[in-house]
Specification:
The protein has 373 residues and is α+β, with helices and mostly antiparallel strands. The chain has three domains: 144 residues, conserved putative lor/sdh protein from methanococcus maripaludis s2 fold (Beta Barrel); 88 residues, Beta Barrel (Elongation Factor Tu (Ef-tu), domain 3); 127 residues, RNA polymerase II/Efflux pump adaptor protein, barrel-sandwich hybrid domain (OB fold (Dihydrolipoamide Acetyltransferase, E2P)). 26% of the residues lie in helices and 38% in strands. The chain is built from six helices and 22 strands. The strands form five sheets. It has a six-stranded antiparallel barrel. The protein has a four-stranded antiparallel β-sheet with strand order 4-11-9-6, with no helix packed on it. The protein has a four-stranded antiparallel β-sheet with strand order 8-7-5-10, with no helix packed on it. It starts with a helix and ends with a helix. The N terminus is likely disordered.
């Protein structure tokens, strides 16, 4: 397995912090009930794990829905009854092709009525102009008929404009992503009939980052992206925009990234997770999940083994996420601590234990590397 693949997987496992950590902790807490099966005077056999710090690249994980960079809602400008819908979800449509139309009877009648009114106002206007030139019409009459004629002319333009927008045509080559109405339905003006995406459009994700990270995220940064639809595949993305002001509701700064090597696997509307590098590394303390007991949200306990007294001490720890099959400990342990691993669920703290043969530090380090891949 090459290094890049290992690093990528290391990054995405923390993205499951909220769900994966809590689910795992519930399981571990349930296991603690097994300790009642042990006799009080029987020494518990345990294996141990020696804490070793690992240096990992610091990243933040963001998520969001995929959107098309060339996406639009197609709708009618006016309301009415849908007469025709030609295309359905997934269909490819060439630019300028008719996709849907409203019933034309009422709309055409409005145009005809506007044409009749315009014709009448034009005749009246020409007659008053002639009378005004002969001195038989007042200036006020001329102004009134001029206003009426101009109004009729604008009403005719509106009626013809609405007639043109009583049908929907493809604005560019693309695909129908969503169809929201059927023939015969009555719809309101502006109610989308189709969600239409461009044929050559790229996919993008809009999400948010905390203010403490915004200065370290730059347009052009390459990020790794995964989707539940293809968890085994890593896609590449590029940061395209970073907001200059925080959202007044969430308090986060908007960030937009574009998928640069998307395929037919990814579609608009899918939720993806992206790991954004911050350009720094950090030292992490990680433990195997079986070492943790009495877990509650981001808190739990481990048992530190004292080789001199051969006893264990129960200590609280604060959790910071998951990398692979290892749990990150943010506080409560230090490098070199030896903690109970197998058998930890049967311990209470303060008792003497029997330590069985454990892996050497070198072998343990190799196991940890495999666990976070």
């Amino acid at each position: 397995m090459n290094k890049s693949k290992i690093d990528i997987k290391n990054v995405f496992k923390p993205a499951l912090l909220v769900m994966s950590v809590f689910s795992l902790l519930l399981f571990l807490s349930a296991c603690n009930g097994k300790k009642d099966d042990k006799k009080a005077d029987e020494k518990q056999r345990i294996s141990t794990y020696v804490i070793i710090k690992r240096v990992e690249q610091q990243r933040i994980v963001i998520s969001g829905k995929l959107e098309s960079s060339e996406q639009t809602n197609l709708s009618f400008k006016i309301g009415g009854r849908v007469a025709t819908i030609v295309y359905d979800v997934g269909d490819f449509v060439k630019k300028g092709t008719l996709m849907a139309a409203l019933d034309q009877d009422e709309i055409a009648a409005n145009v005809a009525q506007a044409e009749l009114m315009h014709g009448k106002m034009k005749r009246d206007y020409e007659r008053v102009v002639q009378l005004s030139q002969e001195g038989a019409a007042t200036k006020e009459q001329l102004q009134d008929i001029t206003t009426a004629f101009n109004s009729a002319e604008q009403q005719l333009k509106i009626a013809r404009y609405n007639l043109n927008l009583s049908s929907v045509a493809a604005p560019f080559d693309g695909y129908v992503a969503m169809r929201r109405h059927e023939p015969g339905e009555l719809i309101q003006a502006g109610d989308p009939v189709f969600v239409f995406i461009g044929r050559s459009s790229r996919l993008k994700v809009v999400s948010g980052i905390a203010g403490r990270y915004v200065s370290r995220v730059k347009p052009g940064n390459i990020v790794d992206v995964i989707s539940d639809s293809a968890p085994e595949k890593i896609f590449k993305g590029r940061i395209t925009r970073v907001g200059m002001a925080a959202d007044f509701i969430t308090g986060t700064f908007p960030v937009e990234l574009e998928i640069v090597d998307s395929s037919s696997i990814l579609r608009p509307g899918m939720v993806v997770t992206a790991a954004v590098p911050l350009g720094r590394t950090e030292s992490l303390i990680m433990i195997p999940p079986e070492s943790l007991v009495e877990a509650d949200e981001d808190r739990g306990y481990v048992f530190i083994y004292d080789s001199a007294s051969k006893k264990v001490q129960k200590v609280p720890v604060k959790l910071g996420g998951i990398i692979g099959d290892m749990m990150i400990v943010a506080d409560g342990l230090k490098e070199g601590d030896e903690i109970a691993r197998e058998g930890a669920e049967y311990l209470t703290g303060g008792e003497a234990v029997i330590k069985v043969e454990s892996a050497s530090p070198a072998a343990q380090n190799a196991q940890t590397k495999r666990a976070i891949q």
